[in-house]
Amino acid sequence: MKFRPSILIGLAVVIGLLAAAIVVKLVLSGNATVAKTIVVAAEGIAPGRKIAVGQVKTVDWFADNLPEGAFQKESDVIGRVPRAALQAGEPILAVHLARPDSNSGLPAMIAEGKRAISIGADEVTGVAGFAMPGNYVDVLVSASDSQGVAFSRIVLEGVKILAVKQQTKANPDEPVVVNAVTLEMTPQEAERLDLARSVGKLSLVLRSEFDRNPSGARGARLPDLFIGSNIVFTPPEKPGVPAAAASPAAAPAAPQPGQPPAQTGRKTSVAAPNNPYAIEEIRGTSRGRESQ
Question: Residue 20, class by beta-carbon neighbours within 10 Å (0-12 exposed, 13-18 middle, 19+ buried)?
Answer without folding.
Answer: exposed
